[in-house]
Amino acid sequence: MHEKIIILDFGSQTTQLIGRRVRELSTYCEIVPYNKFPYDDPTVKGVILSGSPFSVNDDHSFKPDLSAIRGKYPLLGICYGAQYLAYSSGGKVEKGDSREYGRAHLSSIKTEEPIFKNIPQGTQVWMSHGDTITQLPSNFKITASTTDVAAAGYKIEGEPTWAVQYHPEVFHTLDGVTLLSNFLDLCGCKRDWTPASFIETTVAELKAKLGDDKVILALSGGVDSSVTAVLLNRAIGKNLTCVFVDNGLLRKNEFENVLKDYEHLGLNVIGVDAKAKFYSALAGVTDPEAKRKIIGRGFIEVFDEEAHKLTNIKWLGQGTIYPDIIESLSITGTTIKSHHNVGGLPKEMNLKLVEPLRLLFKDEVRRVGLELGMQPHLIKRHPFPGPGLGIRILGDITPEKVEVLQNADDIYINMLREYDLYDKVWQAGTILLPVRSVGVMGDERTYENTVALRAVISSDAMTADWAHLPYEFLAKVSNEIINKVRGVNRVVYDISSKPPATIEWE
Asked: Which of 111, 254, 444, 500 is buried deepest, with most CB atoms within 10 A?
């Protein structure tokens, strides 16, 4: 079993970021609600207390009993975590004269303190708190300050506990990763959490858990489901059956190309051509939400039908990843949102769930995929919406419109790759608009369709900025689409950011 760091979550927006930083330092960690510490887990090497949107002085703020943790494990308090340690030991935390938010610089760093090893005086940090520690208990010793914050960092004498009133996990804290690395050293971590070690451990666990049982998995062609399939295949081989459905709303030649990729990986895949079923169900439907529901329901029906053709299936494989797990529970233990991978599958299927990626972040999934020998173009694929081109054709859907959009989109995506721009954007796609306009081709007047090109820069899809693609590139793409795609005579580029716009148009 891997040694681990436990991050107690007090509700900060950056708690996941602490987890990612620790994982990037080759150390396994788990984020758990502030009151769910795994006392009986022998692999825990240290504990981090996260920030919080609350004040320690609020009646409804989270105030766990840390007496069984302090002194037993190395402990690092961050922001609220630092304030709570001081407050719960008899110190004072009060509302600051002004909210301390933004860049600051550390001074008076006690460089002999191992937590600040290799961190220079004056280093930039990021503050984000309305309260500040105004009085520390007698055995708490200040290790760093800023102009406005006397106790920017402290150490509790007689126990391996450190704390900082800033956020080391964020990009703007220049030596934040060094501080976290120093803490891992103080915990005695071996730093052996790697994609290779994850694969070895997970395959062994899957073999033990599944035995000779059979598993069915819905493939989307995306990163998460593909890496899930390869991991399961390595563990149970032909006892895994994958289903890949062509709903007629995939990108040009995607069904054939993805099946070929999966064949190369040695997967047992059933490819289902269900285009006619989906086109029939979608005929005349223009409402975006109605289209989404029809496509989702159609997928479930096809998957269920294929599952019933197989015998002795006991498990459903899903590409659930760690952010899905974290977001599905609030820190009070109540459900915020349910998993969305294959939501809505009929209960009578009565299958148990197996989710081998449930403890990985997205970037880790990609690294595991590369370690498994998967081709980079499968791993580095842009996100693609579940309803596919169904929500990139505004208005009703017909096979003819799908063909026009597939051809235009194929030119755009291939040219992004050709000009070395594909990997520089988070997501790109083409939208077919319900707009026709006048044009001139040769000496003839045309009255044809408009397509919009979309490309965004993002790290997590929560916010996104439009990608500033070169004008020369956009001009060439426009020219190529208009010359080669019958039915299109105008190309526009979407320069809306999220918010207020969304990445997809529907």
From this structure: 254
Q: What would the two tokens of residue 482 be? A: 């208009």
Q: Report pLDDT for 261.
A: 86
Q: In this predicted model, what pLDDT tens digit does every residue of 11-24 receive, in sequence order?
A: 888 888 899 899 99
Beta strand 161-164 with 153-156: parallel, antiparallel or unpaired?
A: antiparallel
The token pair that represents 359 in the structure block: 């403890």
Quote the pLDDT of residue 334: 36
Please classify residue 12 by burial: count the beta carbons closer than 10 Å to its beta carbon, then call 0-12 exposed, 13-18 middle and 19+ buried. Answer: buried
pLDDT average, residue stretch 465-483 = 97
Cα–Cα dist 448/272, whole Å: 33
pLDDT digits 0-9 by tens, 308-346: 898 889 998 988 888 777 655 545 443 333 334 444 455
Alpha carbons 220 and 243: distance in angstroms, whole number: 9
Listing DSSP states for 203-263 in one string gives HHHHHHHHTT-EEEEEE-SSHHHHHHHHHHHHHHGGGEEEEEEE-S-SPTTHHHHHHHHHH
pLDDT category, 275, cuts 50, 70, 90? Answer: very high
Dihedral sign for Cα atoms in the order 165, 166, 168, 173: negative
Q: Residue written as tokens 């704390």?
A: 163
- The DSSP code sequence of 173-217 is STTHHHHHHHHHHHTT------HHHHHHHHHHHHHHHHTT-EEEE
340 is catalytic: no
Pair 444, 417: CB distance under 8 Å: no
- Could you give the angle at which helices 362-371 and 195-210 cross, rounded to 10 degrees? 90
pLDDT tens-digit map of 231-241: 999 999 999 99
Q: Is 365 exposed, middle or buried (0-12, 13-18, 19+ CB in 10 A)?
A: buried
Gap between the Cα atoms of 107 and 293, Å rounded = 57
pLDDT surpassing 70 at residue 401: yes
Identity of the residue numbered 72: K
Q: Tokens in use for 17?
A: 């970021």
| pLDDT in the model for residue 339 | 38
From 100, 167, 242, 364, active-site residue: 167
pLDDT in tens, 35-81: 999 999 999 999 999 999 888 888 888 999 999 999 999 999 999 99
79: annotated active-site residue: yes
Q: With 70 as the cut, is the pLDDT of residue 443 above it?
A: no
Catalytic residue among 169, 306, 364, 506: 169
Q: What is the DSSP string of 366-432?
A: HHHHHHTT--HHHHTPPP--TTGGGGTB-S---HHHHHHHHHHHHHHHHHHHHTT-GGGSSEEEEEE
The pLDDT score that the predictor gives to residue 483 is 94
Is 167 among the catalytic positions? yes
**Tokens (6 digits) for 412:** 């755009």
Q: In this structure, are residues 129 and 80 in contact, taking their beta carbons and an 8 Å threshold? A: yes
Which residue is it, tokens 């069915």? 216
Rounded Cα–Cα distance for residues 504 and 502 (Å): 5
Chain-centre distance for alpha carbon 161: 31
Tell me if 298 sits within 8 A of 277, measured CB to CB.
yes
